[in-house]
Amino acid sequence: MVAATYGNVEVLKLILMHSEADVNLICGSDKSNALHCAASGGSVNAVDVVNLLLSTGADPNCANANGLCPIDVIVVPPKLQSMRVILGSSWKQLFFCRLLSR
After folding, report:
1. pLDDT tens readout for residues 81-91
2. In a 3-state reduction of DSSP, which class is residue 27?
3. Which of 6, 26, 53, 83 is the most buried (most CB within 10 A)?
4. Where is the signal peptide (predicted)?
């Protein structure tokens, strides 16, 4: 969760290499997962972290305790507003790919 929040792609890759790592693990009283952390952390590496998590099976439709999905909690620094569009596109692409593969 910390690596996702702060956009540390290399640490996240190391964690995900272990077969017992659960990319959809829910944590804390707000019931957030790593995608929630990546989307709300505001890191300049958020796009890379989100894409990595999605490519390893993270569920973009997982709602937290407040009923919010990761796409609902996207926070980006004021100078990087284009990241909101890119992050949203990543989720939309994954959603449509999963629909087509059924």
Report:
1. 665 666 666 65
2. strand
3. 53
4. none
| Model-wide pTM > 0.70 | yes
For residue 59, what are the contacts with CB-CB under 8 A and spacing of at least 6?
24, 33, 35
Helix (H) or strand (E) holding 98: helix 82-100
Backbone angles phi, psi at 27, to 5 degrees: -135, 155
Residue 100 is classified by DSSP as H
For 22-41, how does the pLDDT look when each residue is reduced to its tens digit (9 = 90+)?
Answer: 999 999 999 999 999 998 88
Q: Which two tokens stand for residue 80?
A: 């990087």
d(CA 72, CA 68): 6
Beta bridge partners of 32: 27
Q: How many CB atoms lie within 10 A of CB 42?
A: 17
And the tokens for 93? 């692409």
d(CA 102, CA 99) in angstroms, rounded, equals 6
> Which residue did the predictor score with more confidence, 100 or 53?
53
